[in-house]
Fold:
Amino acid sequence: MKITTSVFKQKKLSGEKITMLTAYDYSTAKLEDEAGVDSILVGDSLGMVMLGYENTLSVTMEDMLHHARAVSRGAENAMIVVDMPFMSYQTSVYDAVVNAGRLVKEGNADAVKLEGGVKFTEHIRAIVDASIPVMGHIGMTPQSVNAFGGFKVQGKSIEDAKCVIADAKAVEKAGAFALVMECVPAELADYITDILDIPVIGIGAGNGCDGQVLVYQDMLGVYSDFTPKFVKRFGDIGGEMKNCFAKYCKEVRSGAFPAKEHTFKIDSETMKAVTEEY
Ligand code: KIV
Structure:
């Protein structure tokens, strides 16, 4: 069954947790979809985990479209949410609508996600008015890494906590169907989850949220440059990949691979006729 914004709403009402993971390519999207993940996020985190940038600021619309198209070919049921990259919506409400439209028309996004609260309500409202579902993203918003002075937990002081609450309410009022809340103390996240009607998807926001999202390379141990405190490793696929790569090198060097069963045959008469000509 295709997961839609109505399914998100139902899950909030019934208390069934929403599952979301990032994916950036066809094969991973297919695996996640088959595993029953509710929503796949084509996150601008691809700048770090796929392209090797230090942060998400260099990611372009073309990067997002390229990866979104690949993911959409792999996912049948999961809702595909695509991130609006840095400077694709901050520049104007007009740019926000045009670029959200491109992610839907050219990237096959079911919904778009953008970072920011109170300051971006006009942008969110205009995209929603264009019939494109919007997922908000508040708390630690990676596109503001330079303004924050690093990837830091948000909402720890009275003033900051009030700002996070104001952002959450503003995003809901602007018409977003859900909200990602990143790196916020668990008690504050619980409070916001309770007062909002839209689902809150947490990442580093405790387990009281309506759902959870993780970057898949983090939870599989594939990306090792930086592991945030909130990440749980569900497996060591990175270690397993490295072992397999090393085994492959060893077998190629020793001549053990390819073996007979990986090799194509030619009829000996045909081969004789071919070589006799030379
Ligand atoms: O880009 C991303 O992967 C995200 C998640 C961290 C929520 O925005």
